[in-house]
Fold:
Amino acid sequence: MRIVVLLGAPGSGKGTIAGRLAASDALLRHVSSGDLLRDAVRRQTAAGVEADGYMRRGELVPDGLIARMVGDLTVGVDSACTLLLDGFPRTVAQAGMLDATVASCGASFGPVVLLEVPDAMLVERIAGRRGCPACGAGYHVTNIPPAREGLCDVCGTGLVVRKDDNPETVRNRLAVYRTQTMPLIDFYGARDHLRRVDATGPIDEIVVRVRQTLA
Ligand code: AMP
Structure:
């Protein structure tokens, strides 16, 4: 098994790119900590109830909660698979948890792909982001528009704006990224795991660039 990480600010395209890569490679599994948490919130599990307030405010949920959630990240995963982590780790402490998981299951690790996007573009991308509450497909009003306005291409459900995509929460999420997640850039840079990718321009081209770093 191999574990690779997509690192980047909110709006840098981690989920979209991971989704595209996984759709074209049966051995690539997209694991989004945000999606797992949103699912837990929807199902009102104990973890979901605990996480909800943090997520609404755009804060990170406590590491202890993440530790429980990702403890069994690799359980039942075929050894031929690559796990593509989106949104985890987000702190240096979480990177330590991931090291422990990698060591315990004998997986190979890396690269950590940093999606680089200018700040102004992050805000524009988040403002236009829409998602399907039924199947999870993601869209953008101009960059990735659905065929029928406001409706999911996959299942026809009405698209929604994520609760934490409002301007105030987005400002907080970007600040949290700078203070708590950006230290991972030096952390993985020092270990020579970091690969920087220009994540601007047409989505298909970004996917190609990221795929090249994983080869
Ligand atoms: P995302 O979908 O990755 O943008 O995550 C949405 C929200 O879920 C974040 O703003 C956090 O509140 C929470 N979250 C997701 N992943 C993590 C993580 N690894 N550590 C802490 N909180 C997380």
The mean pLDDT is 94. The chain is about 45% helix and 15% strand. The two ends are 15 Å apart (CA to CA). The pocket of adenosine monophosphate is lined by residues 10, 33-34, 37, 54-55, 58-61, 66, 87-88, 90, 94, 164, 173 (CB under 6 Å).
